[in-house]
Amino acid sequence: MLIYKVFRSDEWAILQADGETVGAPIDVADGYIHFSTADTVQETVAKYFADVDGLFLLAVETEGLAPLKWEPAREDVLFPHLYRKMRKDDVVWSKPLPLVNGVHQFPDLT
Fold first, then answer.
1. pTM of the complete model beyond 0.85
2. Helix or strand or coil: residue 106?
3. pLDDT, tens digit, for every residue of 55-73?
């Protein structure tokens, strides 16, 4: 199953350059890397990244990804949280999330 991480362009650049990252400031503050599912990622972007240009969507395979925990978050929906640094080799693919007329354009996640 693929899960998704949203990074600003500078955060994605750090992962590419360093090969690993502790994540975005919210990840550092909470002590884990926040991910979303295909069902929740668009709401995540709308809620936390509205009007932010230069975003990237990274897909990560859950199989073999440890320590990954599914924990309740918004409205008690389970979200995947990674309790270690995210590594570049965790990323299956990355795609830009262009902002068009105030709305982020998502690739097909199915």
1. yes
2. coil
3. 999 999 999 999 999 999 9
